[in-house]
Amino acid sequence: MAAAYAALLSLSQVLNQILHPPPAHKTIVVREQIELLLEKVGFVIAFLENYPGEEIGDLGTQIAYAAYESEDFIESNMFDEMLERRTRIDHREKVSLLSEGVRRVIEKFVSIERELAEKIEDKKGVAKFEATSSSRPPLPIGNNTMVGFEDRVNEIMSALSTDESSRRVISIVGMGGIGKTTLAKNVYNNPFIVDRFCFRAWVTISQEYTKKDILVSIWSQIGNRRLKEDEKRDDTLVGELVRKELFGRKYLIVMDDMWDIEAWDMVNRFLPDNDNGSRILVTTRLSNLAVDFGYSSPHKMEFLDEKESWDLLREKVFGKEDVCPLELEKIGKHIARRCRGLPLALVVIGGLLAKSERTREHWVHIAERVTSEVNYENNEYFIKILSLSYSHLPMYLKPCFLYLSVFPEDFEIRVTMLVRLWVAEGFIKPVSDKSLEQIAEEYLEDLMDRNLVLVRKRGSSGKVKTCSIHDLLRDMCTREAQKDKFMYIPQLHDPNISPFIESERRLCIHSGPWKHKVFETSKSAFSKSAGIIRSLLVYSVSNSTSDIASSLRLVRILHMVRGNVKAETPPLFNLRYLACNMDSEFLLSFVSRLWNLQSLIVDINIALPAKIWQMPRLRHLKMKGISLRDPPDSQNTLVLENLQTLSTVHDFKCTEQATRRIPNLKKLGIRYTTKKIGSYCLDSLVGFRKLESLVLEFTAAGVCTNIAFPRSLKKLSLSGSLIPWEDMSIVGSLPNLQVLKLKYNAAKGEKWNPIEGEFGGLKFLLIDNGELVTWEADNTHFPSLEHLILGQVSLKEIPIDFAEIANLQVIQLLDYGGSLWKSAEEISEQRESLGYEPIQIRQFISSMKKVVFLVKFANEKVKTRAMKKVSTFSGMDSISFDPKDSKLTVIGYIDPVLVIIELRKICHTEIVSVGPVKEQYFYGYRYHDYQLSEDTEGCVIC
Predict the structure, then answer these.
(1) pTM of the model
(2) What is the pLDDT of residues 752-766, one digit of tens each?
């Protein structure tokens, strides 16, 4: 039923968009018929929401196909209009054809409505109904609980910390969902273990891995520099770097979810036995694999007993403080027994019970559906249990949950990406006074409350930044999605995939490349589905896949990780979400006609046309660099009420006209490349009254004056602004500010004496690449501070009164063992004497930067001299020169201002761009990518 419900929501959105098109995109509309069709669709949506458990048999399939047929007919008409095809058919005849097509689909919905109405009549006391609210207030997310495994935690801790000096491999064995990873994480993050090992790294292996992936992942967590591209291609070289870095150090490597001994054999020789107590901790489902390590007997995870099962279930339902009502205790214990001691099943069922009615009748209903037939040899029984949680989801959450199957196994899902995809798919029903993104975030919180989605990372503000799904739940999710014809994930080696491709609306490709014969036989299927497939999500690199994307005329979602859209692709007028690589000229050829476009995330620099101001459905616009024209000065111009993300805009003129045109902007990234910024109206930033995150970069030297920030700001990142410390009140006075990052000469001067009463809500503070020498502050100046990072600064000590900041948890410093480190240790010791928890002191690796300079070399000798000078800078990673554009690209832990000062002594030099080398995720592993713009969402470090 989720597929039918999702199809109806999507159709409803299409119909509303046709009824309310942007002024620049007037289309032929038979308004009365469209309104009638929308009414019929609304009735069916309301039925499915109010009677989610109603058995309607084949009618569900009829509903989905009726919605699909309607979409196909209407969107094909819109597509033809956008192509401006000239035919001999006059306007009157076009309207007649459109009217006839809409009439046919209305008849189908009238028939469906009649059958559903009969079912309603059969229910006593039900005469009419309306759709329920699709949003619930989010509840707090619980921590990973190790109920019943306290002894196992102690055993693993003991094995890791034994006095035996030789390197040892400790293995944890058990079936999926029994708590292996949770146990390993509890141990890995235990403060005792953190302090005991010099280096720690966590690698998730899973069933698809490569030697390179494993070694690069380890290096990314222990290495002191970024790998060069040619180094990444050499597995042995990366391995040797890992070995040298670990040599002589005491380390802990966790290899989670290992499926065969080959993964171990690949990396074993790069993990040296330093005779100092280094350890490797492995989790696996395979007992024989654990024995193959030969170091010690594996730690086998057993099922929980009845008491432990009940304790875990009760805690998940009622929390640690609340008591289970007596009338529910007996049936609750019965439910716990039926879960057969599997922690994941208990946690998921606990999430279901916590979110539903706490009545004996409802709990009996749940208990009757937890089957007692058990077969420990496979996961079928437990998937049946987990399926209960899916079947009891409110209808509005089911499409969102099934959509998680689009991500590969162990993929770390960025929440902002997931939310944008849900919105673009049309899964989110509007609620007054809330944006679609806010509602989607509440949906996600709801799924996390039910323990169906796991939190991977949180930002310093407490919001979830990345999430994932347990592999057992993902298996169940994928089964349900494909059974319901909600999503198809082809196996690229299977020659029998063509029939499925022809009929699916959503296609997701997890791994590649295609086998040549399979692709050749599938070409005709893709040709037939060109007007059917609405979503294509690709997580592998393949030219064949790019060919597929080029043929999908009505595609709405095009998400290609590291994939390209070819320039010969026909205009994709139906797009709502576009995230891929694309030529800027090709994009410019049709971007202004993407009247449905919501999210545009393309890794290019582009000068957008003025018509971008005529696209009111835009919600998120993110590129390397955007040159944005001033909005047209006209009384008839549109207000882009939906635009929430805009990044990174070059030399943005922040006029009052601009702030009026995008009043609901929440995330903004700007880079100024000129010293003369007076004409850019930075005092008008206050006009963005809903702005929450701002990244502001100045790549040309010069003190930033006459700037005013909106009071709504929660996150602020500044670089190159050179605001005098004595003027920092313009930042400190912001009442909602929680995160502040001062980087690359954001502030000017050597002394900071903050004013009491400012920075009252600041939780996260980073100061890097600045002149700061003296910091005169106490606990009253930053009363809410939780996380402090000090990078390249001349500061010798941290104010000792920071020991009295109750919430302070972490201090990160660039240099281990220096004066700042000793100052932090003194603060930690004083906190303990005051009765506070000690702080965590960690080393901070300052972000790597990519700087592009425009240089003019008089001759080859000057070029050689300049290149040699740049290479002497500490922290330099790579240097390259493009003679065609006269651009010098420098990558490393460097100060761009210092580099340009030295270069200007040799030749004429200008800074083109400055940005971080951004760490991203691909196939569940981390890789680095050069990005010219700073991520406005990356204002929170985690």
Answers:
(1) 0.74
(2) 999 988 999 999 999
